[in-house]
Amino acid sequence: MNIEIMPIKTRYLKRGEDYLEVIITSLKREIKNGLKLEDGDFVVISEKFVAMGEDNLIDEKDVKVGPLAYLCYLWSKYIWGYILGPLLKTRPDRIKNLRRMPKEETLKHKQAVIDKVGLIYALKPASEGGVDLTNVPGTYAVLLPKDPQKSAERIYSVIKKELNVDVVVMIADTDATYRFLRWYITALPYAIDGIVSGIGVLGYVLGKLAGLLKIGGLCGATPLAITGNEVYKKYSLEEILHIADVADRCRSDPTKSIHQYMEKYNTFEISEEILEKVEHTPIVVVKGWKS
Questions:
Q1: 260: helix, coil or strand?
Q2: Model confidence over 168-188: pLDDT tens digits?
Q3: Distance of alpha carbon 240 from its chain centroid, rounded?
Q4: Are strands 42-46 and 280-287 parallel, antiparallel or unpaired?
Q5: 19: which strand partners?
Q6: Helices then strands (H, E): number in the chain?
Q7: For residues 224 and 247, is the Cβ–Cβ distance under 8 A?
Q8: Among positive and negative, which fits the CA dihedral 201, 136, 287, 158?
Q9: Closest to 55 (Cα-Cα) out of 145, 117, 139
Q10: Cβ–Cβ under 8 Å, residues 45 and 243
Q11: What pLDDT digit, counting tens, does each position of 62-76 carry?
Q12: What's the rounded Cα separation, in Å, for the pair 250 and 27?
């Protein structure tokens, strides 16, 4: 099987900018440079790229911290950092990050998660409910797209109209899907049909347990929406998850953790000027996949 995976570079997308125009411009550039985009190819889009374009952000400096945020902060730092993390074989670098999480920033972030998606997500140690702090400016956090299926359908329609090609469009989140026995689960609020979602931290715990007990484990990135050329309906959920994962793994990754911000820039906040200088590949074309 000759699978081609091509990350597509774009400029940094500021909040509220026309992400559809950036997608088309970037794909046209690559087509001019030799990319042969064909019917049935997958165009996988980062959920953050879509959410940024839809201006679905929250400024965490304005968040009013309540008692539940303190509970989630202590739970993440101490229970996850010293008990559950080691028990569930969480990566040592992630355990280290939990143990040194900044209090003020974490409290505001946990409160934002509680306000926007709920307590069951804020109890997750990191990547809570898809509310993302990485590669967004200042004290902003980016939420998931409000309706990823509608967003995917919009992207598909524009690609078909502008490029005259019938692709499959997928919007995917780096946050994981796991297999637990015969079920696929995620800690995100929603995902494509076939993946159990909306269960918050329980999805993460079950996923980690499945890996430890050898009854499943990590599958990779989570597809939030899929539409377009109906060839994708011939694929199994496992194959769809694999496509999402290979697309996610090939993307450039300028800064994956807020702790990397501190190490690299001596701040937990990052400016748009810095973000404009790093490489962004929120679009990935996957070709040659056969069911």
A1: helix
A2: 999 999 999 999 999 999 999
A3: 16
A4: antiparallel
A5: none
A6: 12, 9
A7: no
A8: positive
A9: 145
A10: no
A11: 899 999 999 999 999
A12: 17
Return d(Cα 281, Cα 144) in angstroms, integer.
18
CA 242 to chain centre: 15
For residue 101, give the amino acid letter: M
Across 102-244, where does the E strand assignment appear? 140-142, 168-180, 183-186, 195-196, 216-228
Q: How high is the pLDDT of residue 261?
A: 52
Q: How far is CA 141 from CA 51, 127, 131, 167, in A?
A: 10, 11, 6, 31
Q: Rounded CA gap, 3 and 252, in Å?
A: 19
Q: Could you give the CA distance from residue 68 to residue 75 in angstroms, rounded to a whole number?
A: 10
- Asked if the model's pLDDT at residue 13 lies above 70, the reply is yes
Burial environment of residue 84 by CB neighbours within 10 A (0 to 12, 13 to 18, 19 or more):
buried
């494509």: which residue's tokens? 192
β-bridge pairing 195-196 and 140-142:
unpaired
Where do runs of H (alpha helix) occur along 92-166?
A: 92-99, 103-116, 119-122, 148-163
Task: For residues 257 and 124, give the distance between their C-alpha atoms in angstroms, rounded to a whole number.
Answer: 15
Q: Which amino acid is it at 21?
A: E
Tell me 212's DSSP state: H
Q: How far is CA 257 from CA 54, 135, 138, 244, in A?
A: 23, 9, 15, 21
- Within 10 Å of residue 147's Cβ, how many Cβ atoms? 14
Q: Which residues contact 254 (CB under 8 A, 6 or more apart)?
A: 135, 275, 278, 279, 280
- Residue 112 phi/psi, 5-degree rounding, is -60, -40
Question: pTM value?
Answer: 0.92
Structure tokens at 227: 């539409």
Contacts of 65 by beta carbon, 8 Å cutoff, 6+ apart: 107, 108, 111
